[in-house]
Design a protein that fits this description.
The structure is a single chain. With 341 residues, the protein is an alpha/beta fold. The protein contains nine helices and 19 strands. β16, α7 and β17 form a beta-alpha-beta unit. The chain is globular. It starts with a helix and ends in an 18-residue tail after the last strand.
Length: 341
């Protein structure tokens, strides 16, 4: 079977005609496989949704109990067959419950990565390479200039600043789903055991993470009227909140932002970020190219991001590659700023 007969791009997203389902559809469809819970991949209104149990829980928390007509949870590595198409989900290492969707029929295997990263992350299961005929990859940071620093070194920068400015509140912008919980866990791993204060938009998702066994330590809502209460404290909030009047309640805040894009000085300056933290939930250039070489696909399809750089690299490596140019996926969780939480 030719790969493009098993899975191809449509206005609604990647579609498998034999199984009559979409993967991470861009609009409501009859049947959907969802790789992870970020709003640009997991939309409400589908008929039937197949995903990991944490992803279904995230969608319910964000969109309500009736986010789909019916749902089915599938554990990592457990195959099911639908209309002759074998489907398995494999860890993507992006956020809690994130998965790569593997579809297989008549000896042809295609793996759709969704979003992924290769670095250790205590909030989610590590990425699992899956050999395939076609690897469908993101390319958010698909240029050689993007090489993310060590996560713990970035957290050490934050803790040094807290020690240096003990009377100031450190206000950290982090996407509500995935990044915020990862920052909290990185702080705990670095020995920070004090109460971490959080914006209200994070509370439901923090509780969800803890219900799946991710320990976050002592947390409290950032809801006092006294600025002095937050002197020397770390407060985590969605990126949009740190630029909002909500941030005025804090004592001379040091504004930080955790994102892979903080490696671009112009972006940090544009946002008025005093302490950029280069921490990404997406693969950087080395992780992308290493992963593709490890998976060793016959073809590489790129969904979104800096696709030209990755396509050029693939060409030099002798890998057949093409851009799907799917419109509707965002870079580094940008849609999470306005997504319900």
């Amino acid at each position: 079977m030719k790969p493009r007969s098993l899975l191809y791009s449509t206005p609604a997203g990647l579609y498998c005609p034999q199984g009559d389902f979409h993967v991470d559809p861009l609009r409501p469809v009859a049947r959907a496989i969802i790789t992870h819970g970020h709003a640009d991949h997991a939309r409400a209104g589908h008929g039937a949704v197949l995903a990991t149990a944490p992803t279904l829980a995230i969608m319910q928390a964000r969109y309500g109990e009736n986010f789909a007509s019916e749902t089915q949870a599938l554990a990592y590595g457990t195959p099911i067959t639908h209309r002759g198409v074998e489907i398995t989900l494999h860890p993507a290492g992006h956020i809690l419950g994130s998965a790569q969707a593997c579809v297989r029929m008549n000896g042809c295997r295609i793996v759709v990565s969704g979003d992924y990263k290769r670095r250790p992350d205590p909030t989610c299961t590590p990425f699992e390479p899956v050999a395939c005929d076609v690897f469908v990859s993101e390319a958010t940071f698909g240029l050689p200039v993007f090489r993310h620093p060590n996560d713990h070194a970035e957290i050490a920068k934050l803790l040094r600043s807290v020690a240096q400015f003990p009377s100031r509140t450190h206000l950290v912008g982090a996407y509500a789903l995935g990044k915020a919980q990862r920052i909290i866990c990185l702080l705990r791993a670095s020995g920070y055991d004090k109460t971490i204060y959080v914006h209200g938009a994070l509370q439901k998702l923090n509780a969800l993470y803890e219900s799946f066994g991710v320990s976050l330590g002592p947390l409290a809502p950032a809801t006092t009227d006294s600025k002095n209460h937050f002197e020397g404290a770390i407060v985590i909030a969605p990126p949009s909140a740190i630029a909002d009047r909500w941030a005025r309640r804090f004592a001379d805040p040091v504004t930080a932002f955790a994102s892979g894009w903080m490696g671009v000085r112009a972006r940090a300056k544009q946002r008025g970020i005093e302490l950029p933290l280069v921490i990404s939930d997406h693969a950087d250039w080395d992780e992308l190219t290493t992963t593709i070489a490890e998976v060793n696909p016959g073809e590489l399809w790129v969904t979104h991001g800096e696709e030209d750089g990755l396509l050029r690299w693939a060409s030099l490596e002798g890998i057949s590659a093409r851009a799907l140019s799917l419109i509707g996926y965002s870079d580094e969780g940008e849609s999470e700023q306005s997504a319900p939480a």
